[in-house]
């Protein structure tokens, strides 16, 4: 393996420490090499904190060696003032002569300006090392700025015979939840929630299951809750309307008089394609990623409009014999894993 690639791989590895906490910033990884040895590392702090390059530079006590070093970073250093000063300026200030970048930043305030600033200062800049790997790592950030929508993850659990829920009469006879997967799989889902900026479900999921949509079985921040409720059937007693977490309700225009304080309401035209309208709303709210845990109808809505990037499908060992069928889709199988007695398959939309 080439030495640049080795160090960019390490940058990707440490960058994952920021997963779920950096939104709407990208989770960047950076490291500094001097005399063929890593002397400093850093990843993006939670939103409002220092960027990866700053943390890597600050991890080095003897700053005098920086003028003889190389800094590696997964994404182009920023060149503008935001919550923090430009990282490109800090690199120039410390006279770091060599910069190796995995991927150019598509953000309109950067978009090559960081590279231009570094080169204008006399730095030797290398771009595009492990670009595809860096693109995959930054898929949420790139989707938001290139496609103008959040990165969309579909998630559901289906029985061994292909159902995601029993029929209504069975639910009425036995009100308790019908768990398809094991506790281990359900805990993993809570971890996934902590890694994404939003979580989306439909009306029936709330009415039938009254979920909290939080990360109580994991550590981290609960995602913004997005609820599709065309006719505002969900009443204030449901868990998702308790205002403990930012909540956005997607509804129709005529419901303005029934809105609750502390909840954000966004209206759409339910006679037009719904998924794209929701994506536009989430883009407006700067939500870079969303995991969709709704029922079959909600999931199929995004599948039918081809507005999804990844699907995570659990298959349990139980059978319902009849019930609500799992969504129908086609995708490229990325991986197959076993979680206790459950099978987890992950697909990409190629």
UniProtKB/TrEMBL annotation:
Cofactor note: Binds 1 zinc ion.
A Pfam family that the UniProt record links to this protein: dCMP_cyt_deam_1
Functional pathway: Cofactor biosynthesis; riboflavin biosynthesis; 5-amino-6-(D-ribitylamino)uracil from GTP: step 2/4; Cofactor biosynthesis; riboflavin biosynthesis; 5-amino-6-(D-ribitylamino)uracil from GTP: step 3/4
One example GO MF annotation: zinc ion binding
Binding site for NADP(+): 157, 179, 205, 209
Keyword tRNA processing in annotation: no
Top-rank taxon: Bacteria
Gene Ontology BP terms: riboflavin biosynthetic process
Residues engaged in binding substrate: 193, 213, 216, 293
Classification via CDD domains: Riboflavin_deaminase-reductase (cd01284)
Transport recorded as keyword: no
Essential cofactor(s): Zn(2+)
List of catalytic residues: 53 (proton donor)
Positions of Zn(2+) binding: 51, 78, 87
EC number(s) reported in the record: 3.5.4.26, 1.1.1.193
PROSITE patterns in the cross-refs: CYT_DCMP_DEAMINASES_1, CYT_DCMP_DEAMINASES_2
Catalysed reaction, written as an equation: 2,5-diamino-6-hydroxy-4-(5-phosphoribosylamino)-pyrimidine + H2O + H(+) = 5-amino-6-(5-phospho-D-ribosylamino)uracil + NH4(+); 5-amino-6-(5-phospho-D-ribitylamino)uracil + NADP(+) = 5-amino-6-(5-phospho-D-ribosylamino)uracil + NADPH + H(+)
Signal peptide: none
InterPro entries with a match to the protein in the record: APOBEC/CMP_deaminase_Zn-bd, CMP_dCMP_dom, Cytidine_deaminase-like, DHFR-like_dom_sf, Eubact_RibD, RibDG_C, Riboflavin_Biosynth_HTPR
Keyword vocabulary terms for this entry: Hydrolase, Metal-binding, Multifunctional enzyme, NADP, Oxidoreductase, Riboflavin biosynthesis, Zinc
Residue ranges of every copy of the CMP/dCMP-type deaminase domain listed in the record: 2-126
Family of this protein: In the N-terminal section; belongs to the cytidine and deoxycytidylate deaminase family. In the C-terminal section; belongs to the HTP reductase family.
Biological role stated in the UniProt entry: Converts 2,5-diamino-6-(ribosylamino)-4(3h)-pyrimidinone 5'-phosphate into 5-amino-6-(ribosylamino)-2,4(1h,3h)-pyrimidinedione 5'-phosphate.
PANTHER family: 2,5-DIAMINO-6-RIBOSYLAMINO-4(3H)-PYRIMIDINONE 5'-PHOSPHATE REDUCTASE, DIHYDROFOLATE REDUCTASE FAMILY PROTEIN (AFU_ORTHOLOGUE AFUA_8G06820)
Protein name: Riboflavin biosynthesis protein RibD
């Amino acid at each position: 393996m080439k030495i640049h690639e080795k160090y960019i791989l390490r940058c990707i590895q440490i960058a994952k420490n920021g997963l779920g906490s950096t939104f709407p910033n990208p989770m960047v990884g950076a490291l500094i090499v001097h005399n063929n040895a890593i002397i400093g590392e850093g990843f993006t702090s939670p939103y409002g904190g220092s960027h990866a390059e700053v943390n890597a530079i600050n991890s080095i006590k003897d700053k005098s060696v920086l003028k003889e070093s190389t800094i590696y970073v997964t994404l182009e250093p920023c060149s503008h003032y935001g919550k923090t000063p430009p990282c490109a300026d800090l690199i120039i200030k410390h006279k770091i002569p060599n910069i190796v970048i995995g991927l150019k930043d598509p953000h309109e305030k950067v978009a090559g300006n960081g590279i231009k600033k570094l080169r204008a200062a006399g730095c030797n800049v290398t771009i595009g090392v492990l670009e595809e790997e860096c693109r995959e790592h930054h898929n949420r950030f790139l989707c938001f700025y290139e496609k103008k929508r959040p990165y969309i993850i579909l998630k559901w659990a289906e029985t061994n015979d292909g159902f995601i829920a029993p029929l209504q009469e069975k639910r009425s006879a036995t009100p308790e939840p019908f768990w398809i997967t094991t506790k281990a799989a359900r805990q993993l889902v809570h971890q996934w929630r902590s890694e994404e900026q939003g979580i989306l479900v439909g009306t029936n999921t709330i009415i039938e299951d009254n979920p909290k949509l939080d990360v109580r079985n994991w550590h981290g921040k609960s995602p913004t809750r997005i609820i599709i409720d065309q006719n505002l059937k969900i009443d204030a007693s449901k868990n998702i309307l308790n205002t403990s977490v930012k909540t956005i309700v997607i509804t129709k225009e005529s419901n303005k008089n029934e809105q609750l304080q502390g909840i954000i309401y966004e209206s759409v035209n339910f006679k037009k394609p719904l998924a794209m309208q929701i994506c536009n709303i989430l883009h407006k709210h700067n939500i870079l990623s969303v995991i969709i845990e709704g029922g079959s109808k909600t999931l199929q809505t995004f599948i039918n409009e081809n507005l999804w990037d990844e699907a995570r499908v659990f298959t349990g060992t139980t059978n319902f014999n009849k019930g609500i069928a799992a969504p129908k889709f086609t995708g490229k199988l990325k991986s197959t894993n076993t979680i206790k007695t459950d099978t987890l398959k992950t697909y990409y939309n190629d």
